[in-house]
Amino acid sequence: MSDTLATELKALEKTLLQASKDSAGKTTRDLITVQNRLYAQLESLSWLQRRLAIKGQLPPLRGWATSPDVLLRLHAHIMATRPQVIVEFGSGASTLVIADALRQNGSGQLISIEHSDHYGMQTLGTLQAERLEGWVDLRIGELEAWEGEHLNPEDAEKPSRWYPISLLEGINNVDLLWVDGPPGATCLFSRYPALPALVNKLSPNAEIWMDDTIRQEEKDTCERWARDHCFELEYYPLEKGLGRLTRPGASTHSPKLMASQSREGNNHPEHVLGLDFSLPSTLTKG
Fold first, then answer.
1. Among 53, 95, 46, CA closest to 69
2. Half-sphere exposure (CA, 13 Å, Cβ side) for 228?
3. How far apart are CA 277 and CA 261, in angstroms?
4. 200: closest CA among 221, 223, 229?
5. pTM score above 0.90
6. Would you say 129 and 213 are in contact if contact means Cβ atoms under 8 Å apart?
7. Do 186 and 143 touch, CB atoms closer than 8 A?
């Protein structure tokens, strides 16, 4: 009996020891993952700050704000492709970054659509402090009922709401559509109306960029846009995800060439250090 008990105790000890090792190994792997993600954002923030010509500091880029890795790609893309008309839904740090790129390019305009007076005034104050307000047409209007096509079910708990259509007056030949609003809590698939509302106002080579595609609703929205409006869809596996829609056969700049094509030439620090804007081999296409 004692021998049997001793054997069982040894087996239990071995099991507990292995479980402890497995748990420690998982904790270590999780910590390494978090550390690598944090490093990637700090590295992107450092490069972004080098690119920007602003005198002050960026708003906090955690929480709901756009992540540094996305803002870096956005700034590089604008300086490389030189879009003349950009529309964004949801103002904030992206407004400052886009306006800075336009000013460095010396041409273009951003139409920024915002639903909140509070955040809109914060954005305007930041733009004015950097003397960037001339590059931005900031339009603010409370969300209202959306009567057009929507992925939000008719019997959903929260009815479909979106920005006032009147805020889109006078917009034409949009080269880049940046979608980061309205908030996801507005209703299901809250960002869906962006492309249907502007599809007839896009330029022939227009691109649509959707933030936060680590969320399924944003992925579903991008895939529906691509299918219904004949766009090609690519996903960047960044911290919060980025969806990029382009027209088939459109004349676009490869992200890998952005740094070398910038006005700073081959001496640009990103080019010298080999920072690669290309999509990873694990890229998902839709």
1. 46
2. 14
3. 12
4. 229
5. no
6. no
7. yes
Angle, CA 101 vertex, CA 123 and CA 269 arms, to 5°: 125
CA–CA separation, 273 and 166 (whole Å): 46
Q: Measured between alpha carbons, how far is residue 87 from residues 76, 112, 114, 135 in Å?
A: 17, 6, 11, 12
CA distance 231 to 252: 13
Question: Which amino acid makes up residue 82?
Answer: R
Query: Would you give per-residue pLDDT tens digits along the chain (286 residues)?
Result: 577 767 766 777 778 777 777 676 666 665 666 666 777 788 888 898 889 999 888 877 776 778 899 999 999 999 999 999 999 999 999 999 999 999 999 999 999 999 999 999 999 999 999 999 999 999 999 999 999 999 999 899 999 999 999 999 999 999 999 999 999 999 999 999 999 999 999 999 999 999 999 999 999 999 999 999 999 999 998 888 999 999 998 765 544 433 333 333 333 333 333 344 333 333 333 3
Give yes or no for a contact between 110 and 98, defined as CB atoms under 8 angstroms apart. Answer: yes
CA distance 163 to 186: 11
Which residues lie below 8 Å from residue 110, measured CB to CB, with a gap of 6+?
86, 87, 88, 95, 98, 99, 102, 135, 136, 137
